[in-house]
Each structure stands twice: as C-alpha cells, then as structure tokens.
Amino acid sequence: MSRAITPRRKAVNTALAWALGLLIFFPILWTVLTSFKTEATAIADPPVWFFFDWTTENYSVVQERSGYFRFFWNSVIISVGSTLLGLLIAIPAAWSMAFVPGKRTKDILMWMLSTKMLPAVGVLVPIYLIFRDTGLLDNVWGLVIVLTLINLPIIVWMLYTYFREIPGEILEAARMDGAGLRAEIVHVLTPMAVPGIASTMLLNIILAWNEAFWTLNLTAAKSAPLTAFIASYSSPEGLFYAKLSAASTMAIAPILIMGWFSQKQLVRGLTFGAVK
Amino acid sequence: MATAHSRTAARLMLAPATVLLLAWMLIPLCMTLYYSFRRYRLLTPERQGWVGFRNYENFLTNPAFRDAFVNTLILVVGVLIITIVLGILLAILLDQPMFGQGIVRILVIAPFFVMPTVSALVWKNMFLNPVNGLFAYAAKGMGLQPYDFLSQAPLASIVGIVAWQWLPFATLILLTAIQSLDSEQMEAAEMDGAGPLARFRFITLPHLSRAITVVVLIQTIFLLSIFAEILVTTNGGPGTASTNLTYLVYVESLLNYDVGEGSAGGVVAIILANIVAIFLMRAIGKNLDA
C-alpha cells in the first residue's frame, strides 16, 4: 500500500480490529478458560475471568470416566485414513487431467463438483441399510470409506489446481531426455507436487475431523469419533460446563493449530481454486 | 505431446476416481428411489410392498414438511446475509494497515475450525442457557429478565450459531479478494473526488462479485445440510420450530424407522437441492468464466 496513513487512523483500525477479533474468538477463549475451572467456578455468577484456582482435574476426569483417548483415536483413524485413501485415488486422476487433458476434462471436473451438491440426507437411508447389512455400522473403516468418497471431489479439484501450475515444459524436457512415465513421476513431478499434496492433505484432515453428519448417524459406542463423543454432552445429565469445556478444548486444539497453518490453502481449497 | 500410450495411461489413472464417485452417486440414489415407492418400516420389516406415491403424499402433506421447508430457507438465507454483510465489513477493516494484523486474522478465522458439535454445545450451555449462560448473567446484571433463546427463538439462535461458524470463511475469502484489488485504481478514484462510499459501491463491490458468488455457492452446499447443530441444541423443536429438511428426513427414517417415507423425503431433498444447484452453477459458471 503506497497510500499514506495517519498514525491516528492506524491506531483506530488496530483498536477496532482487535476488539472485533477478540469478540469473535471469545467463545473459544471462554471454553478454554472454563476447562481449567472447578464445576462450581464454571457457573459462578458474576462470571470469574482469570483469577481463579486453575486446575487440570477436568482433563483427567474426562479421560478416566469416558475414555477420551478412544474417541480421539477414532477421529485420527477416520480423518487421516480417509485423507490418505482419498489422495491415493485422487492423485492419479488429478495428474492425468492436469497433464493429459482431454476434450471432456472440464466436464468431468464440473461433474465431480456437482456430486457435492447431492445432499447427504438423500442417501442416508440406503447407506444406513447397506452398512447395517454388511457390518460396517459403528465401524471406523465404514466411516473411512464414506468420508473418502464425500471428500474425493474436493481432493481432486485441489490437486488439479496445484498440478496445473507445474509447467508442462519440464515434463517434455524430461521425456526428451528419455525419461519413462515412472521416472517422470518419481523424479520430476513428485518433488514439485509435494507442497500442493501436503496442503490438500492438511485441509482434508480438517474437513474430515469436523464432519458431523455421517459420523453422528453411522456410529454408536464403539467407533464414535470426537464429534459424536461431544454430542453425548447434549443430554441434561451432561451439564457439566468445566468437563464439557475440557473435552471440547482437547477436541478442537489439534485442528485449530493445523488450521492456522493452512489459512492460505484453505481459501484456495474450499473455493476449488476459484479464489487464490 | 502426449502419445497414444500416455493417453491410455491417463484414462486408466482417471478411472478409479470416476468409477467410485459414479457408484457412490448412483447406487444409493437408485436405492433411495426404490424405497421411496415401497412400504418398508424397520419395526415391521415383513410387511413390504409397492405403494405408489403414498410415501410422497405422506411426506409432502405432513405439516412438518412445510415448516421444515421454510426453516431450511430461513437458515440458508439468514446465514448467507449475515456472513456476507459482516464478512465484507470485516474484510475491508482487516485490509487496512494496523498493528498485529496476522494475529487478528488468526482470531477471526478460528471459529471455522471448531467442530459443529462443540460450537453448538458451547453456545447452548455457556452462552444461551437461561440459568447458567453468560447472556443470562448479563441480562440479570442489567436488571432484565433472562431470555430463553433456544425455546423462545430456536431457529434464530441456530442461525446465530451457524453464522458464527461461517463468518470466518466468508471473511477470509472476501479478504483474499480485496487484497488483489488494484490500489492505483483506488487512488485514481480518490483523486477524482470519489468518496469512500462511492469507491466501495463502484470499485470494491464489483471487484468482489466473483468472491461473493463463490461464498454463496459453497456455503449453500453446506448450509442445506445443517444437522449436528440442530441435533445437539434443540432436536428440531420445540415442535418443528427448528427442524430443517435434513433433520426431518433423519427423524422419519432413523427415529420413526419409516424407510419408505424417509426415502421419499430424501428424494424431495435431492430435487430441491438440484433446483438450487442449477441456478447456482449457472450463475457461478458465468462468473467464473469471466
């Protein structure tokens, strides 16, 4: 920006932006603070802000009483598993569309995008029945399959926009030097594609971690990930704010940190490359 | 140039993704259609048979359907308006020079990464609860009667919660678009005597139209299937006051065990989503090609 800005204007901007930023962030901050309170302090009126006896008891209680890490582990398997499986299927597809585009490449891409428009609830009944009859209900691998399929279009699109930025001349040069398809992929393409694949992976893990339609409908006690575990606090007997806060903090912390690292890719990935 | 050999290889590499997506779309879709014309209740599975359009009749004449339809519209449109208007204002603010811009950005986008069940429960218990919520404390502090948000205004409360989750997304995308705005154009307009409002109306807003279209498209896809937020806050109630289409189909099929009517509801949801999708894709196609 070359336009001159008065110090006063900059101070006003700063104050206003910080106030709004903190306001938007406040529910998360409040959850984290509450997780370190006792249940009595958590519902104290007037509310207690920073000066209370900080305790980590809630965290150990959540683990002891409900076996928190079991749910955490399910979330890890489901989000990482579906992402890796998705990449395995999507990388060849995106590669071929980016480097050997055909007449119908654009149509295929638009069609893949359109599958995201199919509302999940439209296929809830058959998926539920198929899973019931094949023993995939309440099974982490069943969820890995479903989440792979629902996020596949996003993975393909994201990879496609990244791959398209790799200059084709480099591939041609490699071919002239006699590199076969395999050598081309391993030595030329892979090093250039790694950053794009990494950000696709990051974004997709975030999406899968937070997915809360299929994970709530297809799981029960055994394979429930964190989304479903937290939902169990909605019953009246789960009205323990400090413990709810501790469980919530642990459920969102890893993804919040990953999300902050993937800000830039987030825009690109979620807009299918339309906004960069 | 691609040889015939590499062309075949390319088709082979494309095949798994295409076939899987096609199967994922077609098989359940056909099954939903099939069940939607059958009598099939999970509690009396032995009594099955063709019933023509009776499931559709039951679903569409159910008063809950009309409520769910209207609620779905309010939810989608309400959240879109809030997130886009506030998102534009926030994006313009965040684009200004300031101290600690990076940190403010991090604060603003954080809600997007919070899983739906967490944000819904945190809002429900710690903020909106009429006895122990922060809003109730604030009301009492000012000598007012605490307001029971989730029973008095369930849908508006859910719109608020969902808007909080999606505001970061709209802001981030609009901010990215604003940052690509040519500052020379702005300066020229300023020198020609265009005030801030005129500059916004004739330069910023047209420049943002593509980003706004994208935000509308993507948010609509996700907002049509809001589910977890309703499940953990109101269970669709009181009555059907906060039931949307997604939630209604869930109730019919997995709570009332009526596979037939649930499937008919699923087909209706698909048709409605497709009508929206056609409009959107057309608008987006125009905007993205340009």
From TrEMBL, chain A:
Pfam assignment, any one: BPD_transp_1
Q: What topology in the membrane does the UniProt record assign?
A: Multi-pass membrane protein
Output the Gene Ontology cellular-component terms: plasma membrane
The protein's superkingdom reads: Bacteria
Q: Which InterPro entries does the entry link to?
A: BP-dep_ABC_trans_perm (IPR050901), MetI-like (IPR000515), MetI-like_sf (IPR035906)
Annotated ranges, domain ABC transmembrane type-1? 72-262
The record lists the membrane-crossing segments as 12-33, 71-96, 108-131, 143-163, 184-209, 240-261
- For this UniProt record, give its keywords in alphabetical order, as a comma-separated list: Cell membrane, Membrane, Transmembrane, Transmembrane helix, Transport
Which Gene3D superfamilies does the record match to this protein? MetI-like
- Transmembrane recorded as keyword: yes
Q: Subcellular location, in the record's words?
A: Cell membrane
From its record, what is one biological process in GO terms? transmembrane transport
Please state the protein's primary subcellular location: membrane
Has UniProt tagged this entry with the keyword Cell division? no
Q: Please report which protein family the annotation says this sequence is part of.
A: Belongs to the binding-protein-dependent transport system permease family.
**PANTHER family in the cross-refs:** INNER MEMBRANE ABC TRANSPORTER PERMEASE PROTEIN YCJP, MALTOSE TRANSPORT SYSTEM PERMEASE-RELATED
Q: What is this protein called?
A: L-arabinose transport system permease protein AraQ
Question: Organism source for this protein?
Answer: Jannaschia rubra
TrEMBL record, chain B:
Where do the ABC transmembrane type-1 domain residues begin and end? Answer: 69-280
Q: State the family it belongs to.
A: Belongs to the binding-protein-dependent transport system permease family.
- State the gene name recorded for this protein: sugA
TM stretches of this protein: 12-37, 68-94, 106-123, 155-178, 211-232, 264-284
The record's keywords, sorted A to Z, are:
Cell membrane, Membrane, Transmembrane, Transmembrane helix, Transport
Compartment annotation: Cell membrane
Domain of life of the source: Bacteria
The membrane topology term of the UniProt record is:
Multi-pass membrane protein
Native source species: Jannaschia rubra
According to UniProt, the name of this protein is Trehalose transport system permease protein SugA
BP term (GO), one: transmembrane transport
PANTHER family recorded for this chain?
BLR7065 PROTEIN (PTHR43005), INTEGRAL MEMBRANE SUGAR TRANSPORT PROTEIN (PTHR43005:SF2)
Assigned GO CC terms: plasma membrane
InterPro entries cross-referenced by the UniProt entry: MetI-like (IPR000515), MetI-like_sf (IPR035906)
